[in-house]
Design brief:
- Helix content is 48%, strand content 19%.
- The protein is an alpha/beta fold.
- A hairpin with a 2-residue loop joins β5 (118-122) and β6.
- The strands form two sheets. It has a five-stranded parallel β-sheet with strand order 1-2-3-4-7.
- The chain is globular, with a radius of gyration of 17 Å.
- It has seven helices and seven strands, in the order βααβαβααβββαβα.
Length: 182
């Protein structure tokens, strides 16, 4: 069993209520987060895996999606990695780097779980829309599977039944081919 952390509460308040917090000092925020995760891991005695997030839609928070910061957190907290492909694509777009270059900067050896979803451009920017997977999403997952040994691959999609069935069929084939290699 693993515990996966995703902390959306403050983001919800900032988006829905218009609240703004003072910009954090990136290094202090990172060290504080690492300490909190280590404290949690000691308290629950269950391996903790951390998910990469998509960038917040506010200026000043891009440090949270920079690859070197993600490496620092995962190594410092001694955690596994839940790699979300939608978040990675959105982060790469926000940082204006190629998504494959972005992924190459992440600690792929720590990947325990992969989430896949279809991002889309909305209002001029790429967002993690949880839309049906497209060829680029499958190609990205193939690249990730060639680099990692995830225990779980999760499709993040809950809309049309037929589209869900098609995506699951395609993903099953990919995962089976991947598993046959090992």
């Amino acid at each position: 069993m693993h515990i996966t952390l995703w902390l959306p509460g403050m983001v919800w308040l900032m988006l829905r209520r218009g609240w703004r917090m003072p910009l954090p000092n990136p290094e202090r925020a990172t060290q504080r987060f690492i300490r909190q995760v280590k404290r949690l891991a000691r308290a629950i005695h269950v391996p903790v895996i951390l998910e990469n997030i998509e960038p917040l839609p506010f200026a000043g928070y891009d440090f949270e999606v920079q690859t070197e910061r993600i490496v620092q957190v995962l190594e410092g907290a001694e955690c596994g990695f839940l790699l979300d492909t939608g978040h990675a694509r959105v982060s790469a777009a926000r940082l204006r780097v190629d998504v494959y270059d972005y992924l190459s900067g992440l600690p792929l050896e720590r990947v325990v779980q992969v989430h896949v979803s279809g991002p889309r451009v909305r209002a001029g920017r790429l967002v993690d829309a949880h839309e049906p997977l497209q060829e680029a999403d499958y190609a990205l997952l193939e690249f990730i599977l060639e680099q990692t040994r995830p225990q779980v691959v999760t499709l993040e999609y809950i809309r049309e039944r037929e589209s869900l069935r098609e995506q699951l069929f395609h993903l099953r084939g990919m995962v089976d081919a991947y598993n046959a290699l090992f």
